[in-house]
Structure formats: C-alpha cells, structure tokens
Specification:
The chain is α+β, with helices and mostly antiparallel strands. The chain has two domains: 4-62, Orthogonal Bundle (Arc Repressor Mutant, subunit A); 79-270, no CATH class. Helix content is 40%, strand content 18%. It has helices at 4-15, 24-30, 36-48, 76-83, 93-99, 159-168, 176-185, 192-202, 205-217, 224-231, 262-270; strands spanning 21-23, 52-56, 59-62, 89-91, 109-114, 122-125, 128-134, 143-147, 153-157, 249-251, 256-258. It has a four-stranded mixed sheet. Strand 6 (122-125) and strand 7 form a beta hairpin.
Amino acid sequence: MLKRGFKWELLKTFSASGRDCFSYQDVLEAYPEKDKFYLSKVLSAMVSMGMLIKLRRGIYYIVPTSADAERYLPDWHLVAKCLMSNQKYYIGYYSAMQLHGLITQPAMREIVVTDRQMKATSRIIQGVEFRFVTHSYKRFFGFQSTWVNQYDKVVVSDLEKTLTDALTRPSLSGGMVEIGKAVYETRHKVNLDKLTEYLLRNDSQAAIKRYLFLCFLFDVKRSPSHEILLAKKGHSYPLLDPSGPKEGVKNASFGLKINVDIETIKNAIYT
C-alpha cells in the first residue's frame, strides 16, 4: 500500500517551485534516498488517481486539485514545451499563426517543429493531437521565446518565419485562405527585409511565388524586396494550393498553377 502522504509531498516539491511539469529523472534527483522502483510505482499510482497526466514516457504534468483529470489539459503550448524538454523545438505553422493572433479558431492540434526525427510523428493527449514536423538544419531558424501567460515562455517561430513556413507547407497552416488572410493582415507590420531573407534562405521557390501572388492579389504595395524575390522565383510552375487539384491555369507572371478559386481567397478579406 503506497502512502498517500508521500504523493502530496511529491506534488508540493514541484508545484512549490512552479514546476507543474517534471520528469522521472527529476523525481530521482529530488528523492535520492528512495528506491527508484518505489518511485515508479508512486508516479504510476498518481496517474491512475488523476493527480498527474503522463505526457509521454517519464514526463508528467500536475493536475490542479479543482480539475477533472479526465478532461483537464494545460495550455497546449506548455505541453509542447514539456514534451520537447532538453530538445530543440519551436511551435510553428498553424499553432504559431494562432500565437501571433492570425487565427481566431485554434484547431485541436499543436504543431511542433524539431531539428531531428521523432520516433512518433504525432501523439494524442487528452484529445489534442501534438504533431511533430522535422526541419533540416538549413530550415531550422527564425524562432524566439514568447510569453504565453504571466509566468511562462515557449519557443515559437517569429512572424516572418511563421509566414515563410506557412507559404511553404499550406496544409499545415489552415490552407491558402488562412494564409492569404495572414499575409494581408500583416502587410504593414511584417519586416520585409527579414521576410525576404527568410524566404530566400528557406530555398522554396513555391513559397516565394505564393507570397508574391498573394501580395498582387491584395494590391500590396510593390517594394524593392518584392523585386528581389521576383528575380529568384525560377522557372517551375508549382501549385498555388498543394491540397487542391493537380492541374490549374498557368500564371506566367508569378510562375504558378492557379488551381483554386482565387475569389474565395479574396472574399475572406473583403467580406
């Protein structure tokens, strides 16, 4: 029979120092006098009793005493941070768009970008999918620590990298309508020099072409940065929307196959 008193002591040890998320290794270090198998049993029992959520092997999150353990899920961004403890990551794509205030309806999914292949590409926790997207070293850049509440920071792609990633993989960013809205809404606050640098560094001609086309579609004032990108767009004809039909009308000015109704994109802005 495991003593309930020790379970509360363990919770107090971590919550008192503001560590709602901790690892099995943290517990071993906090209680070196305890048998490690005993501590494993304690943690397992605490999960069964609804005192902890097991995020993944060896990583736990404290459930508030006032919460329903079966339904409780802490801030998704903090869960992502816990899942990626001691690993390089940033919150990206649709999730980063939400953090930057570009999405009003967050999906039941958190997209986490890593610099190495994860054993599993996704994990479901309390009904929310945490999807892990691997970027090569060349594309793993453009992120910063950002406050998500009064006490906690997470790593998220900055505005320019969020747009760059979205334009590269629209399917991870809500599709071209959401991306079009993001380009339009940030047209006066985005750092064009940085965005241009990111798009070139990202080495995706498709992303460059989608960005230029959206700027044209929304009458965004042409700048020297746009001219630099236009000179680097290449000669291929990628799809405007990779999730749409495989064929479309070729637009020679931007080197794109327009395979979706552009009025749908425009209407999302002007109506």
